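User: Predict structure, ligand zinc ion.
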Amino acid sequence: MQLLLGFILALVIAFLAFKARSLNTSGAIAAACTGTIIFGIGGFSWAVLLLAFFITSSALSRAFKKRKQGLDEKFSKGHERDAGQVLANGGIATLFAALNYFFPHQPWTWVGFAASLAAVNADTWATELGVLNPHPPRMITNLMKTVEKGTSGGISLVGTLASLTGSAVIALLATLLPPTGSPSTDRWSLFILVTLAGLAGSLFDSLLGGTVQAMYFCPTDHKETEKHPLHSCGTPTVHIRGWKWLDNDWVNLSCGAFGAVMALLPFLV
Ligand SMILES: [Zn+2]
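Assistant: Predicted complex:
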């Protein structure tokens, strides 16, 4: 019964997001599938965390559009998320919701779920709000080196504070809305654990972006870009650094995975 309700809710939300142009067709199908698992197997608390991520990140993508004009060049995809982006952001969370079916009422499934969403939320907030920083960001691998806004691997004080806030919002919801049947552990240590794990995930994302993520160059615009095979101007882009298979989607998936692993470390000892 909960699975059916979850499916209907996921379908409605995916359709609304499609209509609002937050998701394209493949993105809406992927969101309906991940939503069904998270709402249907997880339940109310799980749905609230996923929606908090989805709604705030979609809203921030739309906000400050003028400030970001010209910067969108650097980001490989537009505001409409496709299936790759949906699975990159929600894949790890979906995995933990599915694990909850096999290991019901285990605190670690909730912690892993929350931390992976805190990480991708932190990363999205940093990306969207970091561009408001008046100063150019610095490379995470070399803090003495300033880079153009929007460069993968660039970090700033504003971006990092945005990241911390994005993570803390998810952590707070995870602390206030523990799933029914979960044992009441120390609530504030859960809040701090998930917040720090989410921040760590987004810093890991920047580290990959500044080192091994695939980067390309557009010979027409003389710009570094994540876009491949074609730049937004239509010119084929040339690979300049990083592992070719490690695109932005794999980096985002790693961000969520790293956040979850960090938060689950205390459960291993
Ligand atoms: Zn170009």
